[in-house]
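Pinned message: reference record for Secreted protein
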Amino acid sequence: MDDNVRELALGLVAAAITAAAGWFARTSVWRRKLHRQQRFFGLPAHSGCLLVVNHDPATDEAAVARNDVFALLELSALVKDCGARMEVVAHDAARRGFGEHTEFCLGGPGSNQRTAAHMEMLLPGVAVNTDAEPGPDRAAFSVGGEHYRMEKGSVEYVLLARLTGASSPAGPRGERGDGEAVRPVFLICGQRSLTNQAAARYLARHQERLARRHGHGGDFCLLLRVVNSRAYGPDVVELVADVTREATAAPTR
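Predicted structure (tokens):
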């Protein structure tokens, strides 16, 4: 009987040790994953960030398009996962510099003044047609001599960029004056609000791959294509090209 009790006790101890080891291993993996995510987004625990909201170009009122609201929800979930705080700011009220806080800037230069300013400084090689009048070139992108027209509901484009100014002589580089790392600006510049939602979802789904490819502190600018949104909404997204070099280079005269 004593031998049986001893074996049972040893079995329980072994099971407890195995369970504890498994818990520590899972916790360690989760912590490493969280740390990588925080580094990529520039969002340490309890840090702050800005969500700069555009306006709906279809109305003169201070309104946000439905799909842009969904994009904000995707981005806010990323911020929450990092254990950070967010401040939602209208595009025409975000009068402050960049690099101190991570910033998510939603919408193209026609609906977001903040995006227009960032693109002028950090993405001088990108041109966006902001004409309000209907036409084949409305909302078209020009990058590196290539033109990308929108075919509404069929083929639509969006730029997804992570920028710190490291690629731009006018922007901050590496660290701020106090030695802290420069926080990135994430630009989501779509031809429609639905493409903004698609890019936000793409960022959430592919953040680990983007971090591996571009580094946790690297700048990038990706051109994405949303395919057949009439049938599939924001779910079918293709990477057209990495246009970082073309987008961050000053256009030739």
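Pinned by admin. Summary line: The mean pLDDT is 84.
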